[in-house]
Hints:
The chain is α+β, with helices and mostly antiparallel strands. The protein has one domain (2-130). The chain is 30% helix and 20% strand. The chain is built from three helices and five strands; from the N terminus they run E-E-H-H-H-E-E-E. Strands 2-1-5-3-4 form a five-stranded mixed β-sheet, with helices on one face. A hairpin with an 8-residue loop joins strand 1 and strand 2 (17-23).
Amino acid sequence: xxxxxxxxxxxxxxxxxxxxxxxxxxxxxxxxxxxxxxxxxxxxxxxxxxxxxxxxxxxxxxxxxxxxxxxxxxxxxxxxxxxxxxxxxxxxxxxxxxxxxxxxxxxxxxxxxxxxxxxxxxxxxxxxxxxxxxxxxxx
Length: 139
C-alpha cells in the first residue's frame, strides 16, 4: 500500500514539505509496527548503497550547483564498511518516540501511543517531527 511521508525539502529556506512515497505491507496495525517498518525500509536502503570504489571521484558542474542549492556538497557515498543494524535502529526509533523526542502525525491527527491501533489507508500522509533542545541541558 502506498503512503506518503512528509519531509522538509532539502535546501529550502522556507518550511516546504515534500510528500515522499513509501510502499508498506497491508498488515500494519499499530504505530509500533509502522515505525519498525519505516526503519526496516531505511536500513535496507542504506545497506544497499554499499561502499563505492570510484577511482577518481568528481562532480559535474550541474551536480555541484544542485548540491550547493541544498547546502551540502558531497559525493553521496558511504565511506564505511559498517552496515546499519536493523535491531538497534528500530529499538532506537521506538525509544526516541517513547522519550518524546519524535512526534508522529497521520494526516492531521497525532498518534500518541505505540500500541494503539492505527488504520492506515492508501494515500495517507504521515509527518514525523524530531524535537530538539534549543538551549540548556536535559538534566
